[in-house]
Design brief:
Blueprint: E1 2-6, E2 9-11, E3 18-20, E4 22-26, E5 29-34, E6 44-47, E7 51-55, E8 57-62, H1 78-83, H2 85-89, H3 94-110, E9 113-118, H4 128-141, E10 144-147, E11 150-151, H5 163-166, H6 169-177, H7 183-197, E12 205-207, E13 210-211, H8 219-232, E14 236-240, H9 244-254, H10 258-264, E15 272-276, H11 282-291, E16 294-297, H12 299-304, H13 312-317, E17 322-324, H14 337-347, H15 362-376, E18 394-398, H16 410-417, E19 423-428, E20 431-435, E21 438-439, H17 444-461, H18 463-483
Parallel strand pairs: 1-6, 2-7, 8-9, 9-10, 10-12, 11-13, 14-15, 15-16, 16-17
Antiparallel strand pairs: 1-4, 2-3, 4-5, 7-18, 18-19, 19-20, 20-21
Helix pairs in contact: 3-4, 3-17, 4-7, 7-8, 14-15, 14-16, 15-16
Amino acid sequence: MSLLIHGGKVLNSKSMDLEQADILIQEDRISAVGPNLPAFDDAQKLNAVDQIILPGLINAHTHAHNNLLKASGDNWTLEDLLNHGAALNSNRTIEAQYVSAAIGAVEMIKTGCTATFDMFMSFPSPNDESIEAVVRAYTDVGLRAVVAPAVADIVFYRTVPGLLDLIPKALRQRVESIQASPTEGLLRMTENAIQRWNGSAGGRIHLGVAPTIPGQCTDTFLAGCLRLLQEYGVRLHTHLAETKVQALYGVQRWGKTIVGHLADIGLLGPHFIGGHGVWLTDEDIQLLADTGSLIVHNPASNLKLGSGIAPIREMLDRGITVGLGADGSMSSDNQNLFEAMRFAALVGKVRFPHRPLRWVGALDVWKMATSGSATLLGMMDDIGSIAPGRKADLILLQSDSVFLRPLNHVINALVYTESGADVTTVLIDGRMVLHHGRMLTVDESRLRSQAQEGAESVRKQNTKDWAFAEQLAPYISAACQKTIKTSFPVNRYAVPIESEP
């Protein structure tokens, strides 16, 4: 099968400007890029006049399970969100797991994303059936994905310093009765998933390892994850120092920072992806750089959950590869990488007043969402740019639009002004999955109806879990407020903690 995309303007990955060019695709890869390309006799043709052709954006950090109950919380910290884990995720059918992943995949495609790294969760933990449902969803929709079932073998409530001491006795007994899934069972489940689905869907689906938060994992479990990395060559993705509470718990537990401990046990390296990295010290950043470890920036959720502003400029200066994520729709509300790019290019500027040379700019962010995220997914030679030999993961944008006219600087316009509304056509592996704004792979209308039904069912069935979470909420808030007053080598909030009333 061959396809000629003709008449459009293609983003040149070297000059970062638009040039009139055709793209010839054979099977799943780009075979040629240039003006007036000849087509094979049997080639299909796609008219791209008045279209801008870009490499597909890559969402390097999301959570498929969040899509079913997106925007359910407001003014929550990350700890509030984790406290509501059972209320948000219990009593889901396998079909609901499928729908949640599929509706998120559709949202990503319709806003120009062609690949993702998904740390999906299932309550109390993923199993073969829920993993299969997520893999099937991405396969059916056509999105390229690394799927990593996110798991832990320590209960969240035990990782908030001082929390158990604050909870009244009767409520505390219930909290202490909650047990994590067995360590060896989680490792077997993850290994089985890798063996069963890694490289499926014609190579579009890969599996990863996701110890969800280091503080919620025993060293035995982390060592087991390291074994899986070494044996199968997959990627490991974790939430790294996302909040000050996590950072301080790490120091309390290990006597050093989270990154310092991960370095000690050999987990850092080119296969290690740290999500967020908000509360990293200068020494942490250097350790990550020295080991070739990777970071994914999630600016929208860092802001909405009040976690802080990540030191992205310092990471880039040390040569760390940084990707970009939308994060889950419970913490940043959508899967729109254009919005994530805008946040990423804006939020760090306030850290360096009147020092624009230290600011993270549009070109930095564009690279995060393309080549940077491609590196995080382990696909740096296949996706993230338009060139012969690369996978044909492409998006077409309507150029004559309110967002892109007048077009004065293409990268600035894509990062600061484009909303994703101009995406008309998306190809993944050379296959058209969206055309004229319409999904070609799944029934989007039916998915939306199923998602609404699933969300209403979860809310109805989980009223007791909601009540339990609400009972615990004030104690979690009190414990976190007390904890964050403890000194730490860096401050990633917008104000010094001492200045709060």
